[in-house]
């Protein structure tokens, strides 16, 4: 699994940072920065951040699935 952000959708609400501060950083007037693309042990926090993103700018991609 890896985290992906669509910067065209991100408006910097920082909900992701609230849900998973170990994975996301949002500057005061900016867009999200993913600190670690592979959520590892923080997968549940990553799922919550994706779920509660107000603009749906975040997603989790399963690299193990065949195309």
What's the gist of this structure?
The chain is built from two helices and four strands; from the N terminus they run E-H-E-E-H-E.
Structure overview:
- The chain is built from two helices and four strands, in the order E-H-E-E-H-E.
- The chain is α+β, with helices and mostly antiparallel strands and 67 residues long.
- The protein has one domain (2-61): Alpha-Beta Plaits.
- The protein has a two-stranded antiparallel sheet with strand order 1-4.
- The longest helix has 10 residues, at 43-52.
- It is globular.
- Its cofactor is [3Fe-4S] cluster.
Features of the shown structure:
single chain, 67 residues, alpha+beta, Alpha-Beta Plaits, two-stranded antiparallel sheet, two-stranded antiparallel ribbon, 2 helices, globular, metal-binding, iron
The total domain count is 1
Order of helices and strands: EHEEHE
Please give the order of strands in the largest beta sheet. Answer: 1-4
Portion in beta strands: 15-25%
Low-confidence stretches: none
Any idea of the CATH class?
A: Alpha Beta
Q: Evaluate the radius of gyration.
A: 11 Å
Mean pLDDT value: 94
Shape field: globular
CATH architecture tag:
2-Layer Sandwich
Number of helices: 2
Distance between termini? 15 Å
Percent helix: 10-25%
Sketch the major β-sheet.
2 strands, antiparallel
Give the helix/strand class. alpha+beta
Total strand count, please?
A: 4
At CATH level 3, the topology is Alpha-Beta Plaits
